[in-house]
Structure formats: structure tokens, C-alpha cells
Write a structure and sequence with these properties.
The complex is a heterodimer of chains A (about 100) and B (about 210). Chain A is about 10% helix and about 40% strand. By secondary structure, chain A is mostly beta strands. Chain A has 2 helices and 7 strands. In chain A, strands 6-5-4-3-7 form a 5-stranded antiparallel β-sheet. A two-stranded antiparallel sheet of chain A has the order 1-2. With about 210 residues, chain B is of the alpha/beta class. In chain B, about 45% of the residues lie in helices and about 10% in strands. In chain B, helix 3 crosses helix 4 and helix 4 crosses helix 5. The longest helix of chain B is centred in the N-terminal third of the chain and has 15 residues. The N terminus of chain B is likely disordered. The chains are: A mainly beta (about 100), B alpha/beta (about 210). At the A-B interface, strand 5 and strand 6 of A face strand 3 of B.
Chain lengths: ~100, ~210
């Protein structure tokens, strides 16, 4: 599927791993989600890359942004709420990799 | 920090009365204007735009969604286009918004752990607690505990979905319409919709207080 001129790598429901990239400086991937596996909820479309924008760059090439859903119990060992509780966050495509 | 919009570009003589962060913001603004990154007018316009918004704007959108199912569908599928129908799209470069609907089985809670992203152009400026490190850290770890402290106890069968606004999209919660409001007008319904209910830390007001 093509979104905003880009090929959407991950479809809804696809399992993805959040990478722990060695990006120095500003980025929009929270540390607590790195190395965690979630499920693609939706693709928001292409947005300028914040890692470039933050330093006066153009944000090009743009990156696809995905809403990824994680189970709370996969994030926190001591999570006491119901099993279905989830956390959803927006992650740029270059921070994701397919997971099984 | 109610002082941050008292925008007297010429009147920087009062700096010694300002706190550390206010002075720092003034200094950064002065440098950015001097270097031509932004103009004073642009800063003024953006401040005015966000000051012109309040939770009453979000409440109007929620109330419309409650009475008009077709509007609700448009709001859920393309929030920007839907709110434009109500006249909320003056600037072209406003952040994208996704509306998350609560129902019997799902309750959404919004946070921004990386900074304090918030649908300001629909709700006005975020409350101080939303920007606090405590809320940002705890909302993603113990959302039910946080909601309990706001007075909201969810039933065990309701799934909690925390939305961490980590990037370009802002999230607005569409709370459930309170029971006992059948036949109410949009204006009456809007008065039940609180800021906190659109962030997800509480429910809309119960109908009694305003029905009286």
C-alpha cells in the first residue's frame, strides 16, 4: 500500500519490534518502548523526520508514522491492571522492524 | 505561568521582576527574532491563537458528536476535516489530531511522555499537571492509579488504552455521553464536557448539576 508517496512497510495488525537505534540527540522514540514488541494499529501517513528538523534540517526524506499498540504487561513486569490494558504510541518507520 | 502571554515586545525593561524561566524564554525569543527565525508578529499570532482556545471548544465538538452520528463518524475518520466544519481550522499548519472514542469496553487516557504535546488548538493550553514529570511518568505505568486519584474508578472489565503522543499527532478523547441526557440540546450537553474528560482522567459531569 502506498501512503503519502511511500510504500507502507507494515500493515494493520502486523507485529513490530521497536529498535534501540544509536541516534544521538533529538528523536521521538521513548526509551521505555525500545526493544518492545507491539502491534500496528494504524498508519498516520508520512511526516518530516524530527531527527533532522530538530537541527535545522528539512525533515526530508519524510518517514511513515505508525500508531503501535503494546500490552501493558509486556512493558512493565509489575503491571497489576487487567491483561487487556494497552499503551499506544506513535513510532516512525525507521525505528521498527518486523517481529514474530 | 500566566505571564508568558503578557506580550510586550518593547517592554523588556521588567526583566528583573521575572523568574528564571520567563527571562530565559524572553531571551530566546529575542535571539530568534533577531536572527530572523521567527518574527515578533508570528509569535504574537501563535500566542493569540492558542489563547483564543479553551476546553469549551473541545466540548462543542464532543457535544456535536454525541447528537450527530454522521459527524461523529467523520470526526473519528478525519478529525481535522470534521472540526473544520465547525470553523476550527484557521491555520494551515496546525498539528494533526486523532479522536479516540471511549465506550462501554474501552477507556482512553492521553499523555505525552517526551514533552507535553496536547491538542492546544482545540482545548487551549494544557493544565500544569499534564506537563508535570509525575503525570508523564505515571500515566504510562499506572494509568488506573492516576485515574483513581482524579476520582475515576474504572470497572475491571473496561480496557484502558493509554495514548502517548510521541510524535506529530495530537489525541483528543471522545468521552461517553452520560446516561440520562436523552433529548438534551447540544449546548446543554456541551456544559457536561470537562477538559479532564477529553484528556481521559475523568468522565463528563453527571447530568444532575446543570439540569437543575
Amino acid at each position: 500500500m502506498v501512503v503519502g508517496g511511500k510504500i507502507q512497510e507494515y500493515g494493520e495488525g502486523g507485529r513490530v519490534l521497536v529498535l534501540d537505534l544509536e541516534v544521538r540527540g533529538h528523536n521521538r522514540t521513548p526509551w521505555y518502548l525500545r526493544g518492545k514488541i507491539g502491534k500496528v494499529e494504524r498508519c498516520h501517513g508520512a511526516y518530516p523526520n524530527p531527527e533532522s528538523l530538530a537541527y535545522g534540517g528539512t525533515g526530508e526524506p519524510t518517514e511513515l508514522l505508525y500508531l503501535v499498540s503494546f500490552q501493558m504487561r509486556d512493558l512493565w513486569d509489575d503491571y497489576e491492571g487487567p491483561e487487556a490494558d494497552a499503551l499506544q504510541a506513535d513510532i516512525f518507520e525507521h525505528w521498527l522492524e518486523p517481529a514474530w | 505561568m500566566s505571564d508568558s502571554h503578557g506580550h510586550e515586545h518593547a517592554g523588556m525593561a521588567h526583566d528583573e521582576e521575572l523568574g528564571y524561566y520567563a527571562q530565559r524564554v524572553r531571551a530566546m525569543e529575542a535571539v530568534l527574532v533577531e536572527k530572523g527565525v521567527v518574527s515578533g508578529d508570528e509569535v504574537e499570532r501563535l500566542v493569540n491563537e492558542s489563547e483564543a482556545r479553551s476546553p469549551a471548544d473541545g466540548a462543542r465538538i464532543v457535544a456535536r458528536a454525541w447528537v450527530d452520528p454522521e459527524f461523529k463518524n467523520r470526526l473519528l475518520s478525519d478529525a481535522k476535516a470534521a472540526v473544520a466544519e465547525l470553523g476550527y481550522l484557521e491555520s494551515a499548519n496546525l498539528p494533526d489530531v486523532v479522536v479516540a472514542e471511549n465506550d462501554e469496553g474501552v477507556h482512553h487516557l492521553v499523555v505525552c511522555t517526551l514533552c507535553s504535546c496536547y491538542p492546544t488548538w482545540l482545548l487551549g493550553r494544557p493544565p500544569d499537571w499534564y506537563k508535570s514529570l509525575t503525570y508523564r511518568a505515571r500515566a504510562v505505568r499506572d494509568p488506573r492509579g492516576v485515574m483513581r486519584e482524579f476520582g475515576l474508578e474504572l470497572e475491571g472489565g473496561v480496557e484502558v488504552r493509554v495514548l502517548d503522543s510521541t510524535a506529530d499527532v495530537r489525541y483528543l478523547v471522545l468521552p461517553q455521553r452520560p446516561a440520562g441526557t436523552e433529548g438534551w440540546s447540544e449546548e446543554e450537553l456541551a456544559r457536561l464536557v470537562t477538559r479532564d474528560s477529553m484528556v481521559g482522567v475523568s468522565r463528563p459531569l453527571a447530568p444532575e448539576p446543570v439540569a437543575a
